């Protein structure tokens, strides 16, 4: 899944952390390859704090294929607010490696390709690649993550490069199905909306029951008003299988 996916503590991380990660399954005897999927409905698709669905409901879903070696590939898609450049659908294809590198420390490195199949070529090429890397460490009951995603210059999609760095904290409340997460990110370059760099942040909670997850998060940025966009409380419901 993406941030974003995309999924540290819960489904809400899919739009909070904006970087791919394999879904965690219940411990059981499995073969060397595991396949997992996810579907969700969110009240607003926020990517790095900015709405990609014009503050409307978005339908999302993905599939991950992971090997016991730590290598994985996956795909994730979301509906968008229809536009000439991006169309009405986003499709992300990614691959990488994740695994433990020390006691309580893991890394995730890979490459993500953003595809907008319905965008009009006459307007410009909106597809682009973005390598990413993150480190997660357990600090008592809290998991702390720091990461970065760098997109080099890629024609009309990115006339200049873009760097996104972020940090996050996540924890599960003992003996409950509740999880909490916080995120802070900074973007600068072609994807900063002409701001010379902007911050995004979010605070959220989720409730899990069997394969279902309910999430709520407050999401905001320090960007000036963009087409009526403002801070939002985003609700989500999803299932993983």
Q: What CATH architecture would you give?
A: Beta Barrel
Q: Quick one: CATH superfamily?
A: monomeric porin ompg
**Kindly state the mean pLDDT as a whole number?**
86
Could you say which overall geometry the principal axes of the C-alpha atoms support?
Answer: globular
CATH topology tier name: Porin
| Total helical segments | 1
SSE string: HEEEEEEEEEEEEEE
Our count of domains comes out at 1
Beta-strand share of residues: over 45%
Poorly predicted segments: 1-27
Q: Which class best fits the helix and strand makeup? A: mainly beta
Strand order of the largest sheet: 1-4-5-6-7-8-9-10-11-12-13-14
Mind telling me the CATH class?
Mainly Beta
Brief rundown of the structure:
The chain is mainly β and 241 residues long. It has one domain: Porin, CATH 2.40.160.40. Helices cover 2% and strands 58% of the residues.
């Amino acid at each position: 899944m993406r941030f974003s996916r995309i999924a540290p503590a819960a489904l809400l991380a899919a739009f909070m952390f904006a970087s791919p990660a394999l879904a965690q399954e219940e411990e059981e005897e499995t073969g060397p390859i595991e396949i997992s999927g996810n579907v969700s409905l969110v009240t607003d698709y926020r990517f790095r704090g900015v709405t990609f669905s014009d503050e409307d409901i978005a339908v999302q879903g993905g599939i991950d294929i992971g090997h016991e070696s730590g290598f994985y590939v996956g795909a994730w898609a979301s509906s968008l607010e229809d536009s000439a450049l991006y169309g009405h659908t986003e499709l992300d294809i990614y691959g990488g490696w994740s695994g433990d590198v020390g006691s309580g420390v893991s890394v995730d490195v890979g490459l993500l390709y953003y595809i907008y199949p319905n965008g009009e070529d006459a307007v410009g090429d909106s597809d682009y690649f973005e390598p990413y890397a993150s480190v997660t460490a357990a600090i008592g009951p809290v998991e702390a993550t720091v990461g970065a995603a760098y997109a080099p210059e890629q024609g009309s999609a990115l006339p200049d490069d873009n760097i996104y760095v972020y940090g996050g904290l996540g924890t599960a409340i003992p003996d409950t199905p509740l999880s909490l997460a916080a995120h802070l990110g900074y973007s600068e370059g072609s994807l900063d909306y002409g701001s010379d760099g902007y911050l995004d942040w979010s605070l959220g909670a989720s409730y899990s029951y069997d394969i279902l997850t309910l999430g709520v998060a407050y999401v905001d940025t320090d960007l000036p008003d963009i087409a009526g966009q403002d801070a939002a409380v985003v609700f989500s419901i999803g299932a993983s299988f």
